[in-house]
Amino acid sequence: MKNIEKYIDNMDITMEAPVSEPERQYYFIKKARNYVRQASEEAGRPLTFCVTTFGCQMNARDSEKLVGVLEQIGYQEEPNEDKADFVIYNTCTVRENANMRVYGRLGQLKRAKKNNPHMMIGLCGCMMQEPHVVEKLKTSYKHVDLIFGTHNIYKFAELIVTRYESNRMVIDIWKDTDKIVEDLPSERKFSFKSGVNIMFGCNNFCSYCIVPYVRGRERSRNPKDIIREIEKLVADGVVEVMLLGQNVNSYGKNLEEPMTFAELLREIEKIEGLERIRFMTSHPKDLSDELIEVMRTSKKICKHLHLPVQSGSTEILKKMNRRYTKEQYLELVRKIKTAIPDISLTTDIIVGFPGETEEDFLDTMDVVKQIRYDSAFTFIYSKRTGTPAAAMENQIPEDVVKNRFDRLLKEVQDISAEVCSVHEGTVQSVLVESMNEHDDTLVTGRMSNNLLVHFKGDASLIGQIVNVHLKECKGFYYLGEMQ
Ligand code: 5AD
Ligand code: SF4
Fold first, then answer.
1. Do 339 and 331 form a contact (C-beta atoms < 8 A)?
2. What does pTM read for this prediction?
3. Ligand 2 pocket: which residues have CB below 6 Å?
4. Do residues 238 and 194 make contact, with C-beta atoms less than 8 angstroms apart?
5. Which one of 49, 158, 291, 394 has the lowest number of neighbouring Cβ atoms within 10 Å?
């Protein structure tokens, strides 16, 4: 960050903006500083921002980039949205209910904006990539100041300047991009761990999923850029990274010099000072033996694999365009568990996909019972306009879906409590993440397998990896004692 600041300070904003990135954004950051300073002098106080993130880890990482720019241009963070001058929603559109929440909250902001002349509202993220959403915002939510999408988030500073200079709603959405801009400011939520994008977009086109339409085609970052970013993070105190991509198992296929995800992991493993490596998300169809081998022998890769199954029925998997069968998935898990017996497995499951029969659903229950996931995210199928599944016949009635969902959830939770408790009495290495929310004599840490444990300790432990004796399992977490 220090280096970036130096570059920004050296920009000459009396000249035309540079064409190349990231210099162009450094120029606009410096320019935006002037506008923010003026506005804050008018207000007689520092201006504040509040970024709310919906959706996945990818969005969480994007939000850190937004915060990085906002802090660079002179806004201060305000956790309470009601008091903030610049309110930003980084949206998700993977299921319909996420969209409804955004509209609801936007409605409430209208009144706040009337009372605060310095207030700005920005919307970005996946939902903004859907043309019908932007149409609706333009006609019914005229109090929004700034709308941009997933492909041009790097232009945030430039868009803020445009907003200050034009004084009207600024909309900039790109359909797709092959551009990856490096070296932008970003402000980490945690000092000791960080998400790191290794690829963007998705080429899989699962028939229920809107992601390929809103995040564009698959593009891998250059391995050198990834390693350089992680090295810098480690120098800045980070001990754990989460490598992010919609389908990390197909990393590197479209690079000029192709490289596999397993090879990338081997390189990252070599980074001195880095203690833990996680990654998300793995598509079962692309999970290689090479990756299992790297995970088995690695000292740093965490013993946790998120492997979305989506459905246990081969018939439904085919309609979902997942490109594996129930048997192939079970075989893959068997291979993984044989190689790495203490691995924690988690998954995503969708209930009520079009055409799902009771028999199909029982196949899903069967997979859950056989695999015994450490935890599973269960979702009710949500129809996303524009995806192939939205046009499929035989959408399942709500009451049938709800009934199946409840049965699945109960099974998943019962198994998960049992699986979680097997570690009782063991000593685990734990990364301390925070003070406990309810008891300030306790800290909360995360084990390699992603489970949480609470134990006596103080804030000085945050960011450290310590050994903890797991005394008592409380369902989905542990109470422990530091060794
Ligand atoms: N309806 C319900 N769940 C969905 N997911 C993706 N698209 C949909 C949809 N249309 C779930 C999948 C995915 C997770 C991130 O969200 O399970 O793995
Ligand atoms: Fe993440 Fe997908 Fe939601 Fe976008 S639509 S935030 S990629 S889960």
1. no
2. 0.94
3. 55-56, 58-59, 92-94, 125-126, 211, 214-215
4. yes
5. 394
